[in-house]
Amino acid sequence: MLKSGQEFTFTIQRGVGTADCVSVNYDDFVNDVEVGDMLLVDGGMMSFLVKSKTGDSVKCEVVDGGELKSRRHLNVRGKSATLPSITDWDDIKFGVDNKVDFYAVSFVKDAKVVHELKNYLKAVMQIYMSLLKLKVQTPFPIYIQLLLHLMGKKAMVARGDLGAELPIEEVPLLQEEIIRICRSMGKAVIVATNMLESMIIHPTPTRAEVSDIAIAV
What we know:
The structure is a single chain. The protein is an alpha/beta fold. The protein has helices at residues 29-32, 89-97, 111-123, 140-148, 159-165, 171-184, 207-216; strands at 7-11, 21-23, 38-41, 46-53, 57-64, 74-76, 103-105, 130-134, 154-158, 188-192. A six-stranded mixed sheet has the order 2-1-5-4-3-6. The protein has a four-stranded parallel sheet with strand order 7-8-9-10. Strand 7, helix 3 (111-123) and strand 8 form a beta-alpha-beta unit. Helix 4 runs parallel beside helix 6 (171-184). It is globular and about 50 Å long. The two termini are 38 Å apart. 18% of the residues are buried.
């Protein structure tokens, strides 16, 4: 359990897991962050201010603490990782072999990523439907470009990651605009993340969650 004000370190060294230091599985992580950046873990539930860094580690101060669990998302507010959107084509091949219905591409930076996936699927003679997850901080004209290149596909507004990489007050506006554009183009659009979060524990949703879903629909 991490508390506000304590020091904590993220390292690209493998197999580290102590009370004050854990490993991240992204080798360019140290290069992607700078002193003063805000790191967000688990969709922004925890936050860390970068104080210094070395060749393989990033030293931080805990701003918003909590229980740090394994395999949580780690974002740098206001920045996109240099990691490519598709890192393992074997996963795509597995989907082709097993005739999956949708392919969801995360961390999309431009329309080139969509075309790469489409061309690969065409090359293996797969009848495909791809699902583009609009989730990273990208200038809005790029979102429009991506949507124009969907060509009969679907879009997902992944609000958890949008909220981790954009100011949270901008998420509803971006969600509304993406839905509007998709509807005007006759494209299907999915709104995801925290739709019924309270029902993880409770048998019924909150009134706010019901209103949220109604507005999204």
